[in-house]
Amino acid sequence: MAKAKPYRTIETEGAKRTLAIVDYDSQFTGGIERKVEDFNKAHPDKAYRVETHKATDLESLAQLNADKVIHTGGQGDPVPGTAPGSLYICHSHQFKAEQEGGKVERLADYQKGTGYMDVKEDDPVIGKQGQTSIEKYHTLAVTEAPKNAKVIATSKQTLENGEETEIAEAIRYVDGSISVQGHPGGDTPSSIIDNYLDIDQEYKEAA
Q1: How would DSSP label each residue in 94-133?
Q2: Could you tell me the pTM of the whole model?
Q3: What pLDDT is recorded for position 38?
Q4: Total number of domains constituting the chain
Q5: How far is CA 203 from CA 76, 77, 92, 141, 174, in A?
Q6: Does residue 148 fall inside a structural domain?
Q7: Above 80 in pLDDT, residue 203?
Q8: Which of 88, 98, 161, 204 is the most buried (most CB within 10 A)?
Q9: How does residue 204 score in pLDDT terms, banded at 50, 70 and 90?
């Protein structure tokens, strides 16, 4: 299968690694790109070349050849295939959970703006244990995580039927991928993208 052509590329002098962003028509894609550019300036020895792809232009994740992959929030069906070691955000967090056998339900209210999540334990990407702020824009939430995954962060929410429950705000998977309900590429300060870019991973190519 031929390698996919990105609709936008951000070149960085001296970059030895590539980050692929799979864009599900998200309003936060530009914010993610800016986060990466800021990371590159702060860590030139770990800099990334950025290739941003429209999800609708991809037949399979196997078309990507990147050291790391970020799946944005947004709309549309998930791109077929797997990309071990990915970071999944918002809508992508939800469909990743469903693909792996989890459950997604509708909330009573639309979550908008700065919210919170309770980080259950220290995680190299999500951050230190304790309550932390993150930007949220969603009406659906993961209410049951897949059996082969570990919930890293939660929050208390009310479902459409009025039932109060604990939702999964961040999940870590056995393939090295991690997902987060909120938007670390939004205006609310978050170190999640920086942490993700900074850590070393053994997963390289999508498959």
Answers
A1: HHHHHHTT-EEEEEEEEEEEEEEEEE-S-BTTTBSSEEEE
A2: 0.94
A3: 97
A4: 1
A5: 26, 24, 19, 27, 12
A6: yes
A7: no
A8: 88
A9: very low
Average pLDDT over residues 162-177: 97
Token reading at 164: 């109060």
Q: Is residue 207 part of a domain?
A: no
Mean pLDDT of the chain, nearest integer: 94
Q: Which domain holds residue 152?
A: 8-198
- 193 neighbors 126 (Cβ within 8 angstroms): no
* Band of residue 207 on the pLDDT scale cut at 50, 70, 90: very low
Task: Say yes or no to pLDDT of 133 above 80.
Answer: yes
Q: Specify if 2 maps to a domain.
A: no
Look at residue 89 and tell me if it is in a domain: yes
Question: Is 173 within 8 Å of 84 (Cβ atoms)?
Answer: no
For residues 160 and 158, give the distance between their C-alpha atoms in angstroms, rounded to a whole number: 7
Contacts of 26 (CB under 8 A, 6+ apart): 72, 73, 74, 89, 90, 91
The first and second tokens of residue 120, run together, are: 């259950």
